[in-house]
Amino acid sequence: HKVKCIWVLPGKRLSYQRHEKRAEHWFIVSGTALVTHNGNEIKMQSGEVINIAIGDLHRIENIGNDDVVFIEIQSGTYFGEDDIERIQDDFGR
Q: Which letter, b or e, does each residue of 23-49 get, where b requires 16 or more Cβ atoms within 10 Å of its Cβ?
């Protein structure tokens, strides 16, 4: 397993992506987020969780005025940052 604490600034979002070798479990600590999971948009707030299976498309966007903070717990066989297929990315990666 690998555990990360991630901050998303207001109006920003992470890339729309998927992973071949890991699943992720997200726990929203604070803020209001719009999570896109396999094309479905889900509004999430503090205390809510979502499970993202291996191969699922996903992204998180901060739709509030305060930082979104979430805990990402990764499980699988490999946790390298090169196990990311970016479908769309606001930062040109």
A: ebebbbeebbbbbbbeeeeeebeeeee
Which DSSP category does 19 fall into? -
pTM, rounded to two decimals:
0.93
Question: Is the distance from CB of 58 to CB of 36 less than 8 angstroms?
Answer: yes
For 31-76, write each residue's pLDDT tens digit: 999 999 999 999 999 999 999 999 999 999 999 999 999 999 999 9
Residue 71 and residue 20: Cα distance in Å, rounded?
Answer: 20
Q: Which whole-number Å values give the CA distances from 34 to 24, 28, 78, in the listed order?
A: 16, 11, 27
Could you give the domains of the chain?
2-81 (2.60.120.10)
